[in-house]
User: Fold these one by one.
Assistant:
Number 1:
Amino acid sequence: MGFLSSLGDHAGFIAASYLVTFAVVAALIVWIRIDGAAQKRELDVLQKRGFRRRADIGVDVDDDADDEETAP
């Protein structure tokens, strides 16, 4: 007895659902890798033009400090 036949009448739907889910997850992984490479290239271009990351220049971003000053 095969695996699909053991799933009963809905075997086709179940197999198709797994296939679509696998395809979507694989597409997301590929998209994230491509976008990550593009973001890295853009960051390298900006750094070559003289822009630096905030962490590299020691800028402290504290959004909560503004809220405390305006509180009643």
Number 2:
Amino acid sequence: MKLYNLKDHNEQVSFAQAVTQGLGKHQGLFFPHDLPEFSLTEIDDMLAQDFVTRSAKFYPPLSAMRSRRMSCSSGCARRLRFRRR
């Protein structure tokens, strides 16, 4: 997934690089070139899913950032497990 800097469209990075780098040149946010399209049926199906399963559909690049042994769903689950203090 390629993302571009909203303040400098010439700066394009991968999802992994955007996560690592944070902000782009001139403090620009990174935004994807293409957003996924879903039918109304797919949206209804996703709304019935838990947060982690639904998030895995939007963040498939997370699996590429880790070992091939880890599935995106399990990777998302570990990252999105919040702890109370």
Number 3:
Amino acid sequence: MPSSTSPDQGDDLETCILRFSDLDLKDMSLINPSSSLKAELDGSTKKKYSFAKKKAFALFVKTKEVPTKRSFECKEKLWKCCQQLFTDQTSIHRHVATQHADEIYHQTASILKQLAVTLSTSKSLSSADEKNPLKECLPHSHDVSAWLPDISCFNPDELISGQGSEEGEVLLYYCYRDLEDPQWICAWQTALCQQLHLTGKIRIAAEGINGTVGGSKLATRLYVEVMLSFPLFKDDLCKDDFKTSKGGAHCFPELRVGVFEEIVPMGISPKKISYKKPGIHLSPGEFHKEVEKFLSQANQEQSDTILLDCRNFYESKIGRFQGCLAPDIRKFSYFPSYVDKNLELFREKRVLMYCTGGIRCERGSAYLKAKGVCKEVFQLKGGIHKYLEEFPDGFYKGKLFVFDERYALSYNSDVVSECSYCGARWDQYKLCSTPQWTLFHSAEALAPPPVTLYCPLPYSAVCRPSLFHHQSLCSVLWSS
């Protein structure tokens, strides 16, 4: 945990941890204190509430800063949030206070929890006779600038995706490891991504970090270099842990960096199901051989092996391994419930699990193992992403769904989904036009004026993005 002091008292620690001198907090009157959260706190922690909320608010605003060409020469700041551009602090503060109260609430709670852990950890460290070797390698200041790369030798345009000589790139990675100060990591990641003109989404928790960012190839290369040299990650991350694909900063609407309880939302506390007890990792080559063996069996239903897709149904709908079991779940937090309801299905089975990049399988396999019904649990190291790099024409058919503006990556010409109206092969997603839903539906690129897309089901029912629309063959339905 980066720290400039080793405080023993609560008030000193409060000042050390919660004060960010480089953030302007003059508009904090816009924030209304949450009595419900305060009511849950003990007397000592209540005193720290206002500090925690100020820090949560300031960090959230800081993540909305966008770099500009002029920012290399002057201190002018801009903020982008909810597709709006803000040119002064008052307006962005007012927007955050009125539109993102829930996020500030959860961030405040997270900071308070982390503060409690830090207090306990600090007391333990101060009473220890031996030095903690991990603590020795951590940053010694809250100033994140010491851990940013030197970009003075580069033209600013080289770092901006689409404006330099190189095409852009998207990185996907995660690293499970214990982090004592997720809030500092959050501030550092925000500053790092802004400096490199990266957009994307990064989740940080006490259990690690999970990110997908896009930018120029120079920017992503520098980002990887920084991550691999950072003391907390250099022993747990390697270059092969970063999955790359064509793209850039345009693949994400903005940069979002935040602290959460889990780096991938399974809905179960990491204290109950830890990443430290996962299934056996198989390389893409080893996994390929296992799938080949499974598919070669005459009666797969009687096999002692299950090929399990851990993703959501709208992901597996457009691409999946042959012969897989693809649960009909809308989000990963439903996976534990699916397992609980189907324990007999997994009893005495060898389970081969896979997901997009491997992260969902880490705790997903740990949860399945904890049930004690499986013979063995394996997981694909690096996920489908790494498998397709080695076996683009292997046993995975169709597209790979991604959570950005590209929606899907294509490694082969297979189309495994179809239009629910006409039955034609189709796998291109578009957003549903029903305001209440932001899930995906497929359609050909529309020529203006745009055609309105709706689910066949009433929008009051469960919106299923696996229902596809095929414009060219469903012209009657589209024009009605």
Number 4:
Amino acid sequence: MSASNGVKQTALEPDKLNPSLPWQNSGRQEALQGYIKKKVAADVLFDSFASGGRVNANQFFEALWSSGIIRTDPRIKDCYSLMRKLQESDGAVDRSTFHRLSLGDWAEPCVLGEISWALIYGLAVDQHGSDYVHRFVGMEEYSKYESPFTLTKQEVTCESGAALAATLANGGLCPLSGDQVLSPPAVRCTLSMMQVAGMNDYSRAFHFRTSVPAKSSQSGVVLIVIPGVLGLMCWSPGLDSNMNSCRGVHFCEELVSTFQLHSFDIETSFRQTLSYRQWKVESEGYQIMNVLLAAYRGDVVSLRRYLLSGADANAVDYDGRSALHVAASEGHLDIIKFLVENACANCTLKDRWGNTALQEAVRCNQDPAIQFLRKYTDC
């Protein structure tokens, strides 16, 4: 259900209505729009290589090799082989396929089973609120509630189940359709329930080992949600004494341990962790300087790397000049094409003197840049 279908709307908190903005974006409406529309890392990576809504696997991996990654690196072996197979069958890879990793019998249908209880609970909280729902369903014993609305016999694939998990990990926003399926408060309640009562009698031990919300079923399915990171579904029918999938539980524990996804994996000066949840990001000033310097030098590889690390393509310096202004004045056509077509740079941004990127190209007599920028009528 989406918000347009009559689902009860939840008032946003004051800090959600007025998010804090970087210093260089204050007072600039164009930059404000770019900041609000910031995309997730997977979308930025896809758009950096996409052409016509699809990514060519050969071009993608050639860019990886040129950045210094070793071709025999075992960490990308599976990704490389899967993308090559997909390209051979489809010609290129689309956005939804680029975001996913599916292994094993992912296309085989499996029964949702008890996993549907958590989903029904989330929908109930979304429509009626947690206070009303908890008058009938206990906060820790919700899984024992017999509801005629459960979908225990519904069949799904691991790929579609992973989309459900990713929606919960994304705060109720479906990553495939962009629809707000559940409200953030309902997602918070659902994940809390999954964390305290999702793995049957093993729930406390599982929470101790992983700290991530999960829900299992006797069909061997495990739905795992790592908030803000990923969502996945495992299906392996072999069950343990707690009626959980043996391999599913083991996989989740190894995943959390390997990538330091535990909520209490704290990095200190005495213990360095390989954290994929916390990125060491430079200050806003250094980010802007690096982006503008890469545009000035015509270095597409470095510019792509900075944007993938979270830099804003529409960020401006103290003169209001963006990377597109710099590239246009220097005549770096490849940088201009990358910024406009892949990074969605705003051609209408004006510097402190009121000049757009097109006007900068005209001022510096950069004919190729002028011809390209004139294709965009808004410039």
